Amino acid sequence: MAKVAGDDAVKAETASILAGYPADRSELINILWELQDRFHHIPKAAIPLAAQKMGISQVDVMETITFYHFFTTAHTGEYTVYLNNSITSRMAGFQKIRDAFEKEAGCSFGETDKDGRIGLFETSCIGMCDQEPSALINGMPFGSLTPFSVERLVKGMREGKSVLELMGVGQDLSSDPHKLARFIAPPNIRRKGPVLLGVGYNMGESIRSALKHKPGEIIDLIKNSNLRGMGGAGFPTALKWQFCASAKGDEKYIVCNADEGEPGTFKDRVLLTEWPARVFEGMAAAAYAVGARQGYLYLRAEYRYLTPHLQRTLDELRKENLLGNSILGKSGFDFDISIRLGAGAYVCGEESALLESLEGKRGEPRNRPPFPVVVGFRGKPTVVNNVETFSLVAQIIKYGGTWFNTLGTAKSVGTKILSVSGDCGRPGVYEVEWGRKVEDLLKMFDAGNAKALQIGGPSGKTISARETARKVCFEDLATGGSMIVFGQERSMPDVAQNFIDFFAEESCGACVPCRAGNPILSDLLKTIREGRGLPEHIDQMVEWANMIKASSRCGLGQSSPNSILTSIEKFKDEYMDRIKKERGALIYDFDIKAAMKESCEVTGRTPSSH
Known about the structure:
CATH topology of the largest domain: Rossmann fold
Shape: globular
Radius of gyration: 26 Å
Number of helices: 26
Distance between the termini: 60 Å
Helix content: 40-55%
CATH architecture of the largest domain: 3-Layer(aba) Sandwich
Number of domains: 5
Number of strands: 17
CATH superfamily of the largest domain: NADH-ubiquinone oxidoreductase 51kDa subunit
């Protein structure tokens, strides 16, 4: 039986952990992670101490704990298993792996075993969709699982092996953070393009190039490149920087959004594994352009294992004076970067929710305006761009905006990194120029049996694989990077169910349309899939979906119904095939007044009186 620490031991250990942090609420999530790692949950005895350190109430601490998926005040076992239940995992054998874990561990999902050693839980996409089925075990990703590998893993847990021992990691790997990161989650780069994946990189080149210009000239350079944000919305990068540079404030911040939580997306993981210094140099260039002195990399919880690799990269940049005070001898150019962790909340991919989380709070989206470039982190002007965007910034500063403009289309310049998964022979990461046709991409992915593609993840669009002439670009099929292939044998209503259940789970709950509407969509879809639906249920789903999109507070609710709407549009026959055709338990022309006639006669009442 695993021992649970007593209150005195908890308080002593908590005090030791807190001593390593400043009294800064933005460190709260990092602190909570240390507590959870140490005790396999967040002990209630630790909460008053954390609150006192941060100068906030215990309720504030509990609000943060309860908001995030990976935090819990209940013991989760010495080995905590989170099995990915996203659609790509289900397509690759999720149920067999789930059954194998329950058989070997001797407990059901949502529970810990009788010894308190192994806890089994489900989670959404962990950024390993090209290597499914996958799971996190004590924060480390295990991909391409089989029932046999599950048996071996559980046996190792029973024997008390470390997670690295379970992975089969030797001393040569464990001592090198970069090699270890590549071993844990292989980059799986399928196509190297001309901008990010196929071009050499030497540390410091971008910052040296940036310092040849004045800050305003850097913004002009990015403007002339026509670079747009790579997170999906495509907002002009230079315009965002210009707003921040012009905003009033004694402090300004640069934040890198490394919270790619969209199921099916994993390209930022590859960039952070292979070229993190380039990302950090892009952040430094932005800081030089807008006058920021501090930057933060907001790293999704599922990529927490990358922290040692990223920290070592930051140390190397500081050693070369590419971060720190008077960077490369430039007086007044002081900039450094810290890593802050997420804890499992898809909504934190939205930039204002991310900033709330960065401040140690619940990741609830803010009302806008004001926008983060005016009132951002700690109420100061803040630039938020994602990993891919900052990587592109570094390359554009090095090679020039004209070079970047020669790639892609007139309205979508440059290249895009795609995360490809699902029913194809070559899942992985691809860099392609914007404007590539669907027909070309399907051939590239070895997806000759494709029926449908999900462009941009669950929040994006479902298209038929027959739409071969359509192009991946902002003016047609915009995407943040996810591309999931579905073969002929897949049921699109089943796919849509997985997607809408994900959004129902991930809603922050701040607004009614999203909080209540997504579960209603889920229930209606389930009714249809189980053969209990009526034709009007499809119409009701469309009505609810449009209402949720029109009235939700942030991008989550505004995009959550997209997969249902577009799959109904493209594959309505599959929905109609599930509709109950026979009379029986369901009667289409049910007349409530006729049904009540006899009881009304007995009681002497009329239907209208009810």
